[in-house]
Structure formats: C-alpha cells, structure tokens
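I am still getting used to backbone structure tokens and would like to learn alongside you. To get us started, please write out a protein record for me. Start from the sequence, derive the backbone structure tokens from it, and show both lines together. Once you have written the record down, we can walk along the chain together:
***
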Amino acid sequence: MPELRLRDHHLIVPLDYSLNNSPGISIFAREVVAPGKEDQQMPFLLYLQGGPGFESPRPLEARGWLKKACEEFHVVLLDQRGTGLSTPLTASSLSQFKSAKEQAEYLQNFRADNIVKDAEHVRSCLVPNDEPWTVLGQSYGGFCAVAYLSFAPGGLRHALLTGGLPPLDVGCSAELVYRACFKRVLLQNLKFYDRFPDSVKTVQEVVLHLAEAEDSGVPLPSGSKLTPRGLQLLGLSGLGSSGGFERLHYLFERAWDPVLVRGCKKQLSYFFLRMFENWLSFDTNPLYALMHESIYCQGAASNWAAERVRQELGDKFDAVKAARDGQPVLFTGEMVFPWMFDEIAALRPLKEVANILAEKEDWPLLYNKKALNANKVPVAAAVYYEDMYVNFSISEATAAEIAGIRLWVTSEYMHSGLRDDGARVLDYLLGMLRGRKLLH
C-alpha cells in the first residue's frame, strides 16, 4: 500500500480470563508503519475504535491521524473482541448457541475489562522488551483507555482520549447519560431544522405515511420494518458528526418516488429505504445494540435505561403526535431501545438475550477511582463541548478524577474530530503532553 506498510497478527486469548480452562478466541491486530521504518526501533501506539462492537478502521491510504502517527510510532489497529477479525459476533454466529442464556453467558465477556486484557496480551507479543505503549482511544475506545488506566497502567506510556471520558460511578450510570444526551439531542434537532427548515414538512410527511401504512410501517429491503420511531434512529448518525445535517437533509430529498401515473398513491422510494438501512449498522454489528447499555453498568442492571428516560419525557419524542400537530419531528441519538429487536430483522433472533443482558445485575467493575486518583500516566484528552454522544459535563466530572490529566476543551469539532481533522487533533494532544500547547 502506498505510504504504508501493514503486518497482520492473529493471536489466541482466553474468552474468560478468570478461568484456567477457558476456551480461546481469536484476536486480530494490524501493525501499520511508514515505508522504510518496518524494522526501526520506534515506540508503539495502540488505537482503540469507538463502539462498542465496531472493528478498527481498514486503512486505504496514509492520511489523517494515521499518517501523523506513523511519523513516530508503530501503530497497532486492534479489532476489539467480537468485531472485525477478532471472533466476530453476528446474528448468524450467535445462532450456534442453543439458548439465549448461553448467548448471554458468552456475551458478558465482551466489555472494556477484557478488551484491556486482550490489549495487554497483544502488547506482550508485539512490543519489544515488554515496553509500555501509548493508547489513542476514540469515543468508546476512550472508555477502554480509562479502564486501562484503572487496571493496567503499567502497560501505558501515554493515554490520548478523543471524545471518550466515561462516567465512573459504581452502579448503572445509563440513566444519567441518557438524560444528558436527550437534552443535547434536542438542541441538535433544533439546529438541524434551523439550517434546513424545508425538512420539517418532508419529515412530517414521511412519518404520517408510515403511521397510516398497514401495521404502522413499511417493509425494508432486508425484511426489517420502517416505523415512525424507527425513522427517528437516523439522528444517531445525522445529528452528531460533521456533515451529518447535510447528509440527513439530502437523504430526505430522495424520500419519494415520482407519481408517474395519475391516481397512483405516493410511496417511499427504494433509494430512501435502502439508504435508511445503510445509515444503520445494527445488522452487521449487532454487538453495538446488545452491549451498548452495559458499558455504563458496574454492579447494576440497565433495565433499558434509554427507553425509560424517553418515557419520562412524555410525548416530546412522539413522532406521530408531532407530525399531526404540525411540529418538527425529533430524531433520537445514541440510544438503543427494546423495540428495535422487533423491528430490525437481524436483531429479532437476539431479542431474548438482549432482555437477559438488560436485566443482568452482576456486571464487574470497569473503572477504579482510587487508581485514577493516583494516576501517574500522562493523559491528554480532547473534550468536545457540543458532543452529542459523550456529554461534556459528565466528561468534566470524570476528568476531575484522573490525576494529571490535561484537557483540551473545544467547540471547534464535533464528536468526529479525530476523523475530520485527525492530524491536527493528534498533534495537539501530543503537544500538550510535550509542553508545546497551552493547558486548559
């Protein structure tokens, strides 16, 4: 590949590190270096992807943060367990289990605590002389990095976090997270309609069309069903990242088929239905839907926290009522709802295990406040003031618990800052650790 050299690593680790005779799973890591530096002794940088349940990026060229990182690091792109080439968990692979209980027992091992243990195994195999490495954690990858600081700080030289400071409290912090997120999602909706006021009527028309259809929805190409509440899921990708408003607006521009024959009913276009499904990744990456709320659980159940908080808001996010009342239809954000396991075809076989996981109370700890209070690892974090996914106030509270952390608070970027301007973001964070940037 021009400007990059890749080296693939397949390793076997225990499914459950607490068991001596645990079955093994495969972990995949891709080492990326600049040409001519393959055998040079340079420090290593581990990249942890956002999620949960998404594989590491597949580089096509040297650009963004990766190109910048390769100037001075051997970069390791880790497919977190259950994703990519690391024993991927899909609706089809999970169907091998005989019961939802067995699925849940397997899935409980796919959280940040074990991702950190996997990373330590990879480090011991790849990094010469067992040297510590730098971790770069984006979004959920930052959550994993904070778990790393909690339980295996000796493996870290530095920690760089971008939009990834998790709530730390023991129990389940999901309700706290979703109450804050719904407020930010509301603001993002208002901004979207302010920028594209014509979208108000278009979205209303689509919602009413779905509500009045047989069974209150229309079939999607995959066999899923598009309903008014399902349509609102577009906010997950459309409201919180750079260019999302524009992409969402353009999507609704193609909502309808033209009426070619007088008297024929108006219908949603195949283009729109297909693109709706392309916007969502629940079918290809079901681990996100299954494990999303559990990332906020430490010794307590989530019990479908996002749905409960949504109910607290009354009819504010009732799409059909809004459309009938002539009000803007509000999209939702980074939330998983139980009814998704009825409406999304690939998730239907996983409905029972999703409920088991939502009711599970004995989740192990993901963070250690005492260790974070005594942290010695240099940490720099980009905190995005208008972040729709990882709330600013919660991030500030967490930062206050990590000794020595250096914060870059900015409204210049949204949650996608590392993707949009990665070289600058990475350079800024490294500069903070090296005394080249002012501390905030």
Remarks:
- The longest strand covers residues 5-14.
- The chain is about 40% helix and 15% strand.
- The mean pLDDT is 96.
- Residues 208 and 355 are 30 Å apart (CA to CA).
